[in-house]
Write a structure and sequence with these properties.
CATH topology of the largest domain: Double Stranded RNA Binding Domain
Strand order of the largest sheet: 1-2
Structural class: alpha+beta
Largest sheet: 2 strands, antiparallel
Number of strands: 16
CATH class of the largest domain: Alpha Beta
């Protein structure tokens, strides 16, 4: 990667070295730069009145944020800027493209788990450690404050906590072709594949679901491309498989 100046290069190198020199004065969490510290404080301290909290929502997935800056950074994940040279898949960043090529086209797994002999497509040892901790460890670090249930992953805890909320909906994933409802994406993916023989939409590596305005998850059928990538690929603005947006 290339950078405009040495300052940007030094900031980037911290991602590889793990150097985190800035700490939150309230919780002690370390960060690699001041912008990440500020984002952390806006996310975590707004409910305590330290920052003025107002909700701005992403129109792609309905997720809300406490500042427009956080929203802009999030929206970049929805806009695809790179296309795989070997297939029709489009991705948002160079690292995702690199991982896709290694995993799908080169069939290369860079790290092997010594506990299950499973070869993993991970780019660093941190991801391998995460696999070992989540799959092979008996340490259930995430505990539900309501009922005491324990989980390996924070994502599992977040999903479980929805059951304790008022107005809980057990079936959140809806089929866009019929009235079928499922509790998760795995069930809906199996339904789309077996009943409707639905292919993975153009530009995607797998079935992906997005949250609609009514709160339910549905299959994402159109890939969102940056205007630059759309021009490079010669995709017209009225193509039914894509949505084109300005560069962020």
């Amino acid at each position: 990667m290339t950078f405009r100046n040495k300052s940007n290069l030094r900031t980037h190198v911290r991602h590889h070295s793990g150097d985190k020199s800035t700490a939150c004065p309230f919780c002690g969490t370390f960060f690699s730069n001041n912008s990440k510290l500020f984002n952390h404080m806006v996310r975590k301290l707004s409910p305590n009145g330290m920052f003025e909290k107002y909700a701005v929502a992403c129109h792609f997935c309905q997720k809300t944020f406490n500042s427009e800056r956080l929203l802009r950074e999030h929206i970049r994940r929805h806009v695809m800027n790179y296309k795989c040279q070997f297939c029709s898949v489009t991705l948002d960043c160079p690292s995702a493209l690199h991982r896709h090529i290694l995993n799908v086209h080169a069939n290369l797994r860079q790290f092997c788990c010594n506990l299950c002999s499973r070869k993993l497509c991970v780019l660093n040892c941190t991801d391998l450690d995460r696999h070992v901790g989540a799959i092979h460890s008996n340490d259930l670090a995430h505990v539900c404050a309501e009922c005491g249930d324990k989980f390996h992953w924070r994502k599992q805890l977040v999903t479980h906590m929805r059951k304790h909320k008022e107005g809980y909906q057990p079936f959140t994933h809806l089929c866009h072709l019929c009235e079928a409802r499922y509790a998760n994406g795995f069930g809906l993916s199996r339904h789309l594949l077996k009943k409707h023989k639905c292919k993975v939409p153009v530009g995607f590596t797998r079935y992906q679901y997005k949250k609609c305005a009514d709160g339910f998850m549905r299959l994402q059928t159109k890939r969102c491309l940056s205007k630059t990538l759309a021009l490079q690929l010669g995709i017209p603005s009225n193509d039914s498989n894509y949505v084109t947006v300005r560069n962020l």
